[in-house]
Amino acid sequence: MEHPLEAKYGLTAYELLDALAQRFRAQVTIEGAVSEVHMEKKVKAMVGTVIDRYQVHDEDGRPDFSIWLPGCSTPLLAECKNVRDRNEAYRSGGEIVAYKVETQKTRAAKGDPTSRYYGVDQFDVLGVCLGKKTGDWTDFLFAKTLDLARHRLHEGKLAVMQRVPLPGADDLTPWYNDLGDLLKGIG
After folding, report:
1. What pTM did the predictor assign?
2. Which run of H or of E encompasses 15?
3. Quick one: which of 185, 173, 168 has its CA closest to 147?
4. Which one, of 176, 123, 140, lies nearest residue 34 by Cα?
5. Number of CB atoms found within 10 A of residue 155's CB
């Protein structure tokens, strides 16, 4: 059965995937989509237990997910990001001691260069996919936005880079391996 994208572009699924695999910017887009789909699977698995319902958003200026906890009429907002790739990491004595995640937007609004930085009130939870480093795109760590590092010059904004512990670290603080554990602490 032909996928709608095959019909739309006149290419086979293999040709489409091959074209995407050969283009850096397309891969960045794919990695973002892959991490969001994996995070959605984690959120969806908690419906009926830790959460009542959720909604996915694919709009500029909105977090990726709205998540309603039982008994709450206002949703928690969750953003999904990927760790930085290649050699980008925090090091000590040449050894990688933590990963990095960038918490700023791609562009700033005209006339306000600080709008590129996320405000601490723009979302409640950050999910970070570790797939670029571990090769397992289901590997995530989660943190409450209020526990993330702040921008040193702009009050109320998040720092551009956040320190993300390595998998298996003895101390994950303020991160959680399990989104459900984080949400139970909020609810």
Report:
1. 0.91
2. helix 13-21
3. 173
4. 140
5. 10
Q: Record the tokens describing residue 159, joined without a space.
A: 């720092």
CA separation (Å) from 92 to 83, 89, 98, 109? 18, 10, 9, 36
Q: Which two tokens stand for residue 85?
A: 């790739």
Task: Provide the H-helix boundaries in 45-136.
Answer: 131-134
Q: What is the dihedral of CA 14, 44, 38, 66, to 10 degrees?
A: 110
Structural domain spans, the chain = 4-186
Cis amide bond preceding 174, omega within 30: yes
Question: Which H or E element spans position 79?
Answer: strand 76-82
The CATH number assigned to the domain with range 4-186 reads 3.40.1350.10
Contact 90, 149 (CB under 8 A): no
pLDDT digits (tens, 9 = 90+) for 122-166: 999 999 999 999 999 999 999 999 999 999 999 999 999 999 999
Q: Write the CA distances from 131 to 1, 41, 137, 173, integer angstroms.
A: 30, 15, 4, 20
What pLDDT, on the 0 to 100 scale, is given for residue 38? 98
Reduced to 3 states (helix: H, G, I; strand: E, B; else coil), residue 181 is helix
